[in-house]
Write a structure and sequence with these properties.
Elements: H1 13-34, E1 40-41, H2 43-46, E2 48-56, H3 67-83, E3 90-94, E4 98-104, H4 109-116, E5 122-132, H5 143-149, H6 174-180, E6 182-183, H7 190-197, H8 203-209, E7 211-212, H9 219-224, H10 230-233, E8 245-249, E9 258-262, E10 267-268, E11 272-279, E12 286-292, H11 294-307, E13 317-321, E14 324-327, E15 330-331, E16 339-346, H12 348-359, E17 366-375, H13 378-406, H14 408-434, E18 438-439, H15 441-470, H16 475-507, H17 511-541, H18 545-548, H19 558-561, H20 574-579
Parallel strand pairs: 1-18, 8-14
Antiparallel strand pairs: 2-4, 2-17, 3-4, 5-7, 5-9, 5-10, 5-13, 6-15, 8-9, 11-12, 12-16, 13-14
Helix pairs in contact: 1-14, 1-17, 13-14, 13-15, 14-15, 14-17, 15-16, 15-17, 16-17
């Protein structure tokens, strides 16, 4: 004889129902708490932006634009877009030298377009000389000493004195030297900054405003460089990595753009192993943290050791990205360990964007942005309406069929569909806000197909229960006996659907992935609903007289099922009687 505390034959269905209802309420609460109350729509439904990038062949190498380099560029661009948290963006070639990047609405499309198209050629070059833009100089070895004699402070000397050494004091530990050796640049003297706004062509004024020594091979280009002009400032003047070069600052310092004479590349950006955006503990400003590989670590340590022995500005390291100087920190001591920072007036988005660009390597080609257009959502709106109407019609037909054929059991199917819809809507809304999942038209088609998958699971279980009833078994044993057989069929069917969705997702691109993702998600939710909602609910209803007695409106009416004799008072098989 079973003890009073023994587990019922149909388990504890109330616990499973409570679990899934609490889950639904929690997801909806999180959805409203985070403000993600609607799924994010894709480009075909809500519109977006399209960026056209045209490949530029390097001078003297027209064959560089080929299928191999274009495919490599597409791969890098796709990684860069994904790193911004943008989903459903497409990157594809058009013709032999053009790439089209399509970005969904709701993202900072213009910033993403500017960032992903960067060539990302990063170099560390020693600074030979610097000056406010527009200042002309004469090549003379005494330029640096003249500048110091005139009382011009170093652009990066922490003490503000031109003759002061950038090395840390003796009281600083080696750890301090590593973390503080790179100092953010400071503007030149205020008087000189004002003079640079209205530059003088005299040699005396030039010498006073220029710090460092301009090599003879750079004198003419350095004199002619005017970084206040956007066309000159954005141009990449670098040639061979073993040659000297000129460059402009990427941002204005004290309202003035600076130009630099730079030495050969000391550390190439290809020797960076990783890059990440972070906040400086000392200044609270955003910066990009770099880690070098073994070769880059050796180069960086040796170069910083050499620069630390020099005076400003020749103790500065210019971090040059795509031909412009991002920052030019001074070096106070050799920096071992393979770690460095790019500092500047970065916002969080700019620092993150630069880190993403560096993480996925330099593009094999230079790309020029040819076009930036906005995709209208008008056509998508009509498609969305058509998709929703077709989905509503399909759902209405499923509900009507369930009520006419299964009657009371049909209400269980409708309730299961409602729970599945609530879970799907909440999860898609949250995914749109967290990982940028965008619901496109194929994804909506996947959700509509899922209605049939969920309804099919109900049909399988209901028919198994009816089959058991036809053998003369009462309702509660029929519910329990039907479940293992129905469960096996449902799991096999859902596994096949999920496998098909997984194959589509991993071996296709673009909008087909949206269909596959939604189909896979709703298939998993079908398993959750049938196990935690449908089966427990039917187990509870089987205890009710309305269903156990086979009421005509219950969907389990003996006469409709062809049961002879009927359930009530009917003769049971010996095995059934013994079990009861």
């Amino acid at each position: 004889m079973a003890s009073p505390k023994s587990r019922p034959r149909d388990g504890y269905p109330g616990r499973a129902l409570s679990l899934i209802l609490v889950t639904v309420v929690a997801l909806v609460a999180i959805m409203f708490a985070t403000g993600n109350t609607k799924p994010r729509l894709g480009i075909d439904l809500a519109g977006g932006s399209s960026v056209t990038l045209k490949a530029q062949a390097p001078v003297g190498n027209p064959g560089a634009v080929n299928s191999t380099s274009m495919n490599e560029a597409v791969s890098i661009l796709q990684q860069r877009v994904n790193a911004f948290g943008v989903s459903e963006a497409t990157v594809q070639t058009q013709g032999s030298d053009t790439i089209i990047v399509t970005i969904p609405k709701g993202t900072n499309s213009q910033q993403i377009a500017d960032e992903i198209g960067k060539t990302a050629l990063l170099y560390f070059r020693p600074v030979l000389a610097e000056a406010p833009s527009g200042v002309a100089v004469t090549p003379t070895p005494s330029t640096s000493s003249t500048a110091k004699a005139s009382g011009s402070p170093s652009a990066t000397a922490p003490s503000g004195s031109a003759s002061a050494s950038a090395k840390p004091s003796a009281s600083k530990t080696q750890g301090d030297a590593v973390t503080q050796a790179l100092k953010a640049p400071t503007p030149l003297a205020t008087a000189k900054a004002s003079s640079s706004a209205n530059p003088s062509s005299s040699a005396a004024s030039s010498a006073a405003l220029t710090s460092g020594t301009v090599p003879a091979d750079l004198t003419a280009p350095f004199n002619n460089l005017d970084c206040s002009q956007p066309t000159q400032r954005s141009k990449d003047y670098q040639t061979a990595t073993t040659a000297n070069a000129i460059a402009c600052s990427s941002t204005a310092i004290g309202g003035v753009y600076y130009k630099y004479a730079l030495g050969p590349v000391s550390v190439p950006g290809t020797n960076i192993s990783s890059a990440s955006a972070g906040v400086s503990q000392q200044t609270g400003a955003w910066q990009v943290n770099l880690s070098f590989n073994s070769q880059g670590t050796t180069q960086f340590t040796n170069t910083t050791g050499t620069l630390a022995t020099k005076t400003s500005p020749q103790n500065q390291f210019a971090i040059v990205l795509d031909g412009t100087v991002q920052s030019s920190p001074s070096v106070a001591a050799a920096i071992p360990g393979g770690q460095a920072q790019i500092t500047g007036s970065f916002t969080q988005q700019e620092a993150t964007g630069l880190a993403n660009v560096l993480n996925f390597g330099a593009l094999p080609l230079t790309f020029q942005q040819q076009d930036f257009t906005t995709v209208s959502p008008e056509l998508g709106g009509s498609q969305l309406t058509a998709g929703l109407v077709s989905g509503a019609i399909g759902l209405a037909l499923v509900i009507l069929y369930s009520l006419l054929y299964y009657r009371g059991l049909g209400l269980v199917a409708i309730a299961g569909l409602a729970v599945s819809a609530a879970l799907t809507y909440a999860i898609m809304s949250l995914l749109g806000g967290t990982i940028g999942f965008a619901l496109n038209l194929p994804a909506i088609c996947g959700a509509i197909v899922a209605i049939g998958i969920t309804a099919d699971s109900f049909v399988v279980y209901f028919e198994r229960i009816r089959d058991e009833l036809r053998t003369g078994t009462s309702l509660r044993p029929s519910v329990q006996r039907a479940w293992p057989k129905a469960r096996r069929t449902i799991l096999v069917a859902d596994f096949v659907s999920f496998l098909a969705a997984a194959v589509l997702y991993f071996f296709t691109v673009g909008k087909v992935q949206g269909f596959a993702f939604t189909l896979g998600l709703t298939t998993l939710l079908d398993v959750v609903v049938i196990f935690l909602f449908t089966k427990p609910l039917i187990s509870l209803l089987a205890r009710r007289k309305f269903f156990s007695d086979g009421h005509p409106m219950s969907g389990l009416d003996p006469s409709r099922l062809g049961i002879r004799p009927p359930l009530r008072g009917g003769r049971r098989r010996p095995a059934e009687t013994k079990e009861a």
